[in-house]
Specification:
mainly alpha, flat, Double Stranded RNA Binding Domain, 56% helix, RNA-binding, 18 helices, Ribonuclease iii, N-terminal Endonuclease Domain, Chain A, 3 strands, hydrolase, endonuclease, 307 residues
């Protein structure tokens, strides 16, 4: 609405577009969108829609009704119901063709949702971690977009109870397969949202995905905005302390045995720095980077003059 009030051309400008503009400008000038925008602008004095929204705090995120809405709603009821129909349901009907079985299950919605989920998560991470490199962003994305996590989210949202399926119990007892069918349901529902809102704004869907990813942000968020890795940090530290006043060797110690790995670097018993990485090599390089940043300590033990 604000864009319309601020940017819509005057009636004179619109008439000029239609009479003297290019083919594209003429098409825009006679379009229904331009007619609606022009009408809203013309009636602003008698009904200022922007002021109405502001007066009743329409964008307030703390409305009590929100406690009853656990996820964005698909307005098309048939589309919403389809998102919860597993392929095993139409497969029970021997009179249906393969094409009919396909359109009567959530498989096509799952395909769409799978593609868009990656894009939504990528957009969320792009905004949330503006200084993270592609590798860090990919690791966070993989922590969110996987069958195990999506299956858990699907159950958390109540999709497990809504999913209509006829899968043999022997298959659902296998953990990975169980998560897979609920992960597929989650993706199908997202696909339904995409179709339902394709011409509308997606901000609420993006906010929803971001909210559901808070566990991953808390667990891995600390690794997302690291300093760029200096791949020669160990070599630089070695040059500074190869000949030192203690006549000791620089040694690295790995503090754990699973990612993210943590390593510390010491000169004899003197702590120089600690680093964390997805592998031991990165952790050691980052420990060396931290040590190099402490110029006073390096100068204290090195026989070289630090510049």
């Amino acid at each position: 609405i604000k864009v319309i009030y601020d940017s819509v051309p005057t009636n004179e400008d619109i008439n000029d577009m239609v009479k003297n503009g290019s083919q594209l400008e003429q098409s825009i000038g006679v379009s229904p969108a331009m007619s609606v925008a022009s009408y809203l602008k013309m009636e602003q004095r008698s009904l200022d829609i922007e002021s109405v929204f502001q007066r009743y705090k329409f964008e307030n995120a703390d409305l009590s009704v929100h406690q009853f809405v656990r996820y964005p709603v698909v307005t098309n009821i048939n589309l919403e119901n389809l998102a919860f129909v597993h392929r095993s349901i139409p497969n029970m009907n021997v009179n249906l063709t393969e094409a009919q079985k396909t359109v009567m299950s959530n498989e096509r919605l799952e395909f769409l949702g799978d593609s868009w989920l990656g894009a939504f998560v990528a957009y969320v991470l792009y905004r949330k971690y503006p200084f993270s490199d592609e590798g860090a962003l990919s690791r966070m994305k993989n922590a969110i977009v996987n069958n195990s996590n999506l299956g858990k989210l699907s159950q958390k949202l109540g999709f497990k109870e809504r999913l209509k399926e006829n899968i043999p119990r022997s298959k659902t007892k296998i953990k990975d397969r169980s998560f897979r069918q609920y992960a597929d349901c989650f993706e199908a529902y997202l696909g339904a949202l995409v179709i339902d809102r394709f011409s509308a704004e997606f901000l609420d869907v993006v906010d929803w995905i971001e909210e559901l990813s808070q566990d991953q942000f808390r667990t891995l968020g600390g690794t997302m905005e690291k300093k760029p890795l200096n791949k020669n940090a160990k070599g630089e530290l070695g040059n500074y302390l190869q000949f030192n006043k203690l006549d000791a060797k620089v040694k690295y110690f790995c503090l754990n045995n699973q990612p993210p790995f943590k390593s510390e670097v010491r000169l004899c018993d003197i702590f120089l720095g600690m680093g964390e990485g997805q592998n031991i090599k990165e952790a050691e390089q980052r420990a060396a980077m931290e040590a190099i940043d402490d110029i006073d300590t390096i100068q204290k033990y090195s026989i070289h003059v630090m510049e």
